[in-house]
Amino acid sequence: MSDFLSAQTRTETDSIGSVEIPASAYWGVHTARAHENFPIARRPISVYPDFIRAFACVKQAAARANLEIGALDEQRVTLIDRACEEIKTGMLHDQFVVGVVQGGAGTSTNMNANEVITNRALELAGHAKGDYAFINPNDHTNRSQSTNDTYPTAIKIALAFSLGSLLDELALLADSFAAKGREFSHIIKVGRTQLQDAVPMTLGQEFNAFAVTLREDIERLREAVSLLGEVNMGATAIGTGINAPRGYKEAVIRHLRDITGLELVTAGDLVESTSDTGVFITFSGALKRSALKLSKISNDLRLLSSGPQAGFGEINLPARQAGSSIMPGKVNPVIPEAVSQVAYSVAGADVTVSMAVEAGQLQLNAFEPIIAHSLFQSITWLERACQTLRVNCVDGITANEQRLEDTVSRSVTVITALAPVIGYAAAAKLAKEALATNEKVSELVVSRGLLDQAQLDDILQPQKLAGLAPETGTIEIIDGTAPEKLEDGEE
User: Fold this and answer.
1) Domains of the chain
2) How many beta carbons lie within 10 A of that of residue 396, not counting itself?
3) N or C terminus of the chain with fewer C-beta within 10 Å?
4) DSSP letter string over 25-61?
5) Distance separating alpha carbons of residues 220 and 447, to the nearest angstrom
């Protein structure tokens, strides 16, 4: 922001009056006024580089379409095109200085883009910044356009760009959980429902389930982003296409597809498309779903690693930092805690998006800036959360195998596997006795003569307990007697 303190200035004028602009700045009078009016978030739109890149794509496509239909000359279009290409590669992003929270339905952002592109194009042509008689932000860079079609289109393109990185991180995180699932596939443990002991499973199954749920979310997010492909370029102010020459609508979408590589289509009803922002609710909901499932997984990791002496203590999370300023040696699950906090922020952002979508009136939603900010921040934070959970936590998790083995050996939940053989009532009675006496269920079953050791060992094979073995071919028992084996030909 050093440009605001520059001693050398140029004068730019709009319908309100004149403003002194730092001579080195690529933005102009509209951006200057917005910067003064919206010192709210103290975060410029440049914090979302995909948004800036998307805007450059939109302006580049518009310029090419205007050339194709004869609305702009080749010299100006070439210069505008070159400036957009540079911005797409990351140049001049520091010149996008308007705040992420702004009034005006995104006009400040659109004009920030128009001014930066124009002044860079002027510079490329050997003209001074602010020489708008040659290339004008409104008359040339914004030709055939309105904020009301360029802004929502840029948001949708930027979300598609940004989501790619998030999906990559989710996939890597899912792979890490799957790898742990394979590593822990031999370790039997007690499952839990409602925080109470349930039937046995493997630690590998538990971790593989984390991988599966994340991969399901990847598919849901891909479905959500496909809905963003419908855009309203050519709608201009309210969807009627005023000031957009004949042929522009068809040309700009074709160029925009070529430039972005996205499957974009023009909305069938541009008036409806300009006023409707419902697609952002769907997209936000998919982000929230993914975030809350990440938080659930993080909470499970915290529970499984709780202790290390007085908790579950089934797994060990990597020690990342000292956990207390007063309790020596304490280490906390700081990475899962941070991930859950990101999830809470995403859930809150979803509420913001929902309220902003509902608040649109008549032919335009004026609150798209907060929709854009909420969605971009959610994607950015989720991507980073996935990365730190994978790198700083999941990849370093180890299992406390001895503790898990001891827990399974004393768990009364194995009685569930015996209930079809000895009957539910007898099994419940044994479970109650085992809990009262602290004896092992397996020992009680044998001592009562309900099963011999060989039968017991067969039923309580770890693979069978965890559902890893094929069907055993035994008749279902409902009267408490031992099963009969099927003979050949019997049904």
Assistant:
1) 9-143 (1.10.275.10), 149-239+255-400 (1.20.200.10), 411-465 (1.10.40.30)
2) 15
3) C
4) -S--HHHHHHHHH--SS--BGGG-HHHHHHHHHHHHH
5) 53
* Residues composing the chain: 491
pLDDT in tens, 400-436: 999 998 888 777 777 777 778 888 888 788 778 877 8
Of 480, 483, 466, which is closest to residue 408 (Cα–Cα)?
466
Element (H, E) at 12: strand 9-13
Residue 449 neighbours by CB under 8 Å, 6+ apart: none
* Tokens describing residue 5: 């303190």
Question: Coil, strand, or helix at residue 449?
Answer: coil
Beta partners for residue 192, in sequence order: 197
Give the amino acid at 282: T
* Catalytic residue IDs: 324
3-state secondary structure of 241: coil
Among residues 306, 292, 305, which one has the least CA distance to residue 207? 305
Q: What is the pLDDT of residues 234-254, one digit of tens each?
A: 999 999 999 999 999 999 999
Return the structure tokens found at 200.
Answer: 């046995």
- The residues, ordered by sequence, that sit 6+ positions from 303 with a Cβ below 8 Å of its Cβ are 311, 312
199 three-state secondary structure: strand
Residue-wise DSSP of 344-389: HHHHHHHHHHHHHHHT-BTTB-TTHHHHHHHHHHHHHHHHHHHHHH
Beta-bridge partners for 11? 20
pTM for the predicted model, two decimal places: 0.86
Compute the distance between CA of residue 154 and CA of residue 375 in angstroms, rounded to an integer: 13
Q: Strand, coil or helix: what is 171?
A: helix
Query: Residue 364 forms beta bridges with which residues?
Result: 361
Cβ atoms of 97 and 44 within 8 Å: the answer is yes
* Pick from 230, 292, 284: nearest CA to 257: 230
Query: Is the separation of the CB atoms in 24 and 8 below 8 Å?
Result: yes
What single-letter amino acid sits at 440?
K
For the segment 116-165, what is each residue's pLDDT rounded down to a tens digit? Answer: 999 999 999 999 999 999 999 999 999 999 999 999 999 999 999 999 99
Distance CA 24, CA 451 (A): 89
- β pairing state of 265-266 and 230-231: parallel
The Cα 390–Cα 73 span in angstroms is 52
Identify any residues that bridge with 231 across adjacent strands, giving them in sequence order: 266
